[in-house]
Give the backbone structure.
Amino acid sequence: GIQVEQSPPDLILQEGANSTLRCNFSDSVNNLQWFHQNPWGQLINLFYIPSGTKQNGRLSATTVATERYSLLYISSSQTTDSGVYFCAVEREGGGSQGNLIFGKGTKLSVKP
Amino acid sequence: DGGITQSPKYLFRKEGQNVTLSCEQNLNHDAMYWYRQDPGQGLRLIYYSQIVNDFQKGDIAEGYSVSREKKESFPLTVTSAQKNPTAFYLCASTPRGRRSGANVLTFGAGSRLTVL
């Protein structure tokens, strides 16, 4: 099956710093999503981005489908950005069933 | 507000007991999913359902069972056959269809099961 690798596994930032999280995947995809899991376990969708670039406030994401990677940028980080960021993909030709394969996540800690 | 409600939030079970986790959504979504999350790991798919009265096994279905009698409800039973059931369980849904973004997952708050 498709493999999803996220890096770095852990990241510690000072409040106000910028960061880039990476997601590599091993096959062509028709669905790629980024999620944030807060310390209480709630997962929130950040982006649906199988290709191209999107921005939402201090967050932006870019997926280069031909090179099989996606990047999540966090600018001017805040303590509320802490948590785990997951990348999840669905293999192209998977039937649009929404069955996403998740990476192991990047755990972000933002210090005041 | 529309969303997904999971209950209970915390559950303790003795070995050998079956337990059922509830998942209810009022988003009018067609598809529903159950994921399992272990510490430091990503999510793994247990079961999914695209439509009422139909469901398919995910990657780790052994020891679990589901039903989909109503569009709004997708309960998960963790049976005594599940060898290592202690985990965080997440229910999700999508509107389904082939339009752009149709398969964006919305998650419930999760249920944390501990086997004593």
Notes: The two ends of chain A are 41 Å apart (CA to CA).
